[in-house]
Write a structure and sequence with these properties.
6 helices; globular; disordered N terminus
């Protein structure tokens, strides 16, 4: 009996780590769950990055629009997976994403201020961009370099309007890639 209990506990612990990547996220006094992971691909390049979406439990099963518009702690984590990604290409693609989001009804006047915070970062394969939204604070961006192992605070961009515009890049009515959107939503 004792061995069975120990065995079950080991299986449970292994499953919990395996299913959550051993990573938990807490923002704004709320535990977030990983809703899904999407893959951004480009013709002839392949995978550019993976984007995971983290939301509070109460947003699980909600629509993309409800997640975009929720004034709740949420996060998107981007894992760069291409040697061809540079800071300039990241900024250009994100700028284009903001334009698509604005055309879909999610404009923001803060996009250039946000993008300017990344100008001194040299992106490369294996790096991670953390985008954490906390109500009343704004969107906090962090960058982790695979080469150095260091995490840099990129800065906070205030406002729910900015969170909506940024999340609409991936989850909006005209997302950067439909399959990426479905993956992030766990579909």
């Amino acid at each position: 009996m004792k061995k069975a209990v120990v065995c079950m506990l080991c299986v449970f612990a292994f499953s919990a780590i395996f299913l959550t990547d051993g990573y938990t996220l807490r923002l704004g006094n709320k535990d977030l769950i990983k809703l899904g992971v999407g893959q951004r691909t480009m013709f002839l390049i392949g995978t550019v990055y993976y984007a995971s979406l983290w939301v509070p439990q109460e947003l699980k099963g909600k629509s993309a629009k409800e997640i975009i518009e929720a004034d709740e702690p949420c996060a998107v984590i981007l894992n760069i997976d291409s040697k061809l990604i540079t800071t300039e290409k990241f900024l250009k693609a994100t700028r284009e994403g903001f334009a698509k989001a604005a055309a879909s009804g999610y404009p923001t006047a803060k996009s250039e201020a946000f993008l300017s915070k990344f100008k001194d970062i040299q992106m490369s394969k294996g790096d991670v961009v953390y985008l954490y939204y906390t109500p009343g604070v704004g969107l906090d961006a962090k960058y982790k370099s695979k080469a150095t192992g260091e995490t840099k605070n990129v800065g906070v961009t205030p406002g729910l309007d900015f969170k909506k515009a940024l999340f609409a890049i991936w989850l909006g009515p005209n997302p950067v890639q439909e399959s990426l959107k479905k993956g992030m939503l766990g579909q």
